[in-house]
């Protein structure tokens, strides 16, 4: 008993979110949405870049190097 008391003596209070962790973990993640993304026009892409959004080009790096939207990223 003394050993356990010494171990927990310096611990802070349990964080409030712990009350929600059990049910959230038991429920598991929400189903994955496999809906294909909507097509974006060049105007849509330009507007999103201007708004500070990232545009990620998922084509092969050689295709990206051959030509891509200015400001887009390739991984």
Which key features would you list for this structure?
2 strands; two-stranded parallel ribbon; mainly alpha; 4 helices; 43% helix; elongated; 75 residues
Structure description:
This protein has 75 residues and is mainly α. It has one domain (2-74). Helix content is 43%, strand content 5%. It is elongated. The relative contact order is 0.10.
N-to-C series of helices and strands: HHHEHE
Strand content: 5-15%
Strand order of the largest sheet: 1-2
Distance N terminus to C terminus? 55 Å
How would you sum up the major sheet? Answer: 2 strands, parallel
Provide a count of the helices.
4
Low-pLDDT regions: none
Domains, number: 1
Computed CA radius of gyration, to the nearest angstrom: 24 Å
Overall 3D shape: elongated
Average pLDDT for all residues: 91
Helix-strand makeup class: mainly alpha
Tell how many strands the DSSP assignment holds. 2
Helix share of residues?
40-55%
Topology diagram in text:
Elements: H1 2-8, H2 18-27, H3 42-50, E1 56-57, H4 61-66, E2 73-74
Parallel strand pairs: 1-2
Please outline what is shown here.
The protein has helices spanning 2-8, 18-27, 42-50, 61-66, and strands at 56-57, 73-74. With 75 residues, the protein is mainly α.
